[in-house]
Amino acid sequence: MANDQEMAPQFGHAMRSYFQYDASYIPLNHGAFGTYPNVVRDRLRYFQDLTESRPDDFFRFKLAGFVDSARGAIAEYLGVDEGECVFLPNATTGINTVLRSLVFEKGDVIVYFSTIYGACEKTVEYLKETTPVESAKILLRYPLGDDEIVAKLRNKIQALKGEGRRARVALFDTVSSLPGVRVPWERLVKVCQEEGTLSLVDGAHGIGHLRLDLGQVQPDFFVSNCHKWLYVPRGCALFYVPAKNQHLIRSSVPTSHGYEPYPIDGQEAVFNPLPINKGGYFVNLFQFVGTMDIGPYLCMEEALRFRQEVCGGEKRIMAYCEHVSNEGARKVAEILGTEIMENEEKTLTRCCLTNVKLPLRMGQEAGQIKPADGFAACSWMTQTLIREYNLFVPPFFHDGYLWIRLSGQIYVEIEDFIAAAEVYKELCSRVEKGEHIKR
């Protein structure tokens, strides 16, 4: 009997019939919001219809069992314990949950890299306003080798110790957003373990994108969007906390019915109107966090089934996405006459995202982009792509240059990247003529 991989369809444009894209649209920005196949959409609508048919019955009595089934599926997929996995709407919520749960003292420091996702950095800034915690940002100017990145984290943690301060937690990515490069997160977790610092891994681009050996790597906290690369509807994220650290998570964000305050003599306990999940306190915290459409969480099993039975499994999916992203980026760089962001070890592109430098010269001379106008050029290109062209590839500014980030996925082919290159060639010409600063 043929296995799933042998029976799977060819990747590329043939896969577009499984998804909901407009036939004329070129989707090269999967890394931003993700998407999901038609069968998963049907499953989502099934749960939405089930909810609306008897809302009270669903939320009060049916929901817990459906969520437990989904948690069991993702735990099996990752090879971890079901009681260590819960769902959240997105990775940003997970980062906030951890950072707002930790009790910071004077001298505590949150360490992170300059490529941090913007919303997470703002969370750190907010906590500096409201708690005694401080922050330490480590500058990364790509391309960098993995050894250098790892050394930068260790050196910063040790430097803080020498100053009498404590790196309470280090926040870093599996694959950073902008630029879209693979981060040696497994080695960074090991540094944290050796230096006595908690590791908080922002795996927004993690599950469904990379092989994740959570049980072996053992991060202290790990959060990953399932709606980006796993074909689960928005918004759904995995929040993984090993049992040894669950006592540090006292509340969900926002605090809801599952929270249990420490008892105070003479104070009556707050009533929880919902059934208690037998999975324990950590699971109960996230069982019901305000009324919302919980349907995306419940599509986990259907998404995993599609990946295995239709696509032929994780290795096949990840191999194609990385390959088409890398080969497509090479074509883009060739057409633009520039380069791919890569280090000597070739580790930055061991993922499904690639970055290509734009052929725009920065400077003060005629035909050059003034450094102060770099972000204005990005903003103009972003709006123009959406308004005038039938594709989207995000531009961004890094270390004095303008780049674009390309996403590989099972429904794209090299010719899609070539089309994007031609569009950006035209856009860059328009920017050189100053169109981005015309009013």
Note the topology.
Blueprint: H1 4-7, E1 26-27, H2 30-33, H3 38-53, H4 55-78, E2 85-88, H5 91-101, E3 108-113, H6 118-130, E4 134-138, H7 146-162, E5 166-173, H8 185-195, E6 198-202, H9 214-217, E7 221-225, H10 226-229, E8 237-240, H11 281-285, H12 295-298, H13 300-310, H14 314-336, E9 353-357, H15 374-388, E10 391-392, E11 395-398, E12 401-407, H16 414-432
Parallel strand pairs: 1-10, 3-4, 3-5, 5-6, 6-7
Antiparallel strand pairs: 2-8, 7-8, 9-12, 11-12
Q: How would you describe the overall organization of this protein?
A:
There is one protein chain. The protein has a 7-stranded mixed sheet with strand order 2-8-7-6-5-3-4, with helices on both faces. A 3-stranded antiparallel sheet has the order 9-12-11. Strands 1-10 form a two-stranded parallel ribbon. The chain has helices at 4-7, 30-33, 38-53, 55-78, 91-101, 118-130, 146-162, 185-195, 214-217, 226-229, 281-285, 295-298, 300-310, 314-336, 374-388, 414-432, and strands at residues 26-27, 85-88, 108-113, 134-138, 166-173, 198-202, 221-225, 237-240, 353-357, 391-392, 395-398, 401-407. Helix content is 42%, strand content 13%. The N and C termini lie far apart (65 Å). With 439 residues, the protein is an alpha/beta fold. It is built from 16 helices and 12 strands.
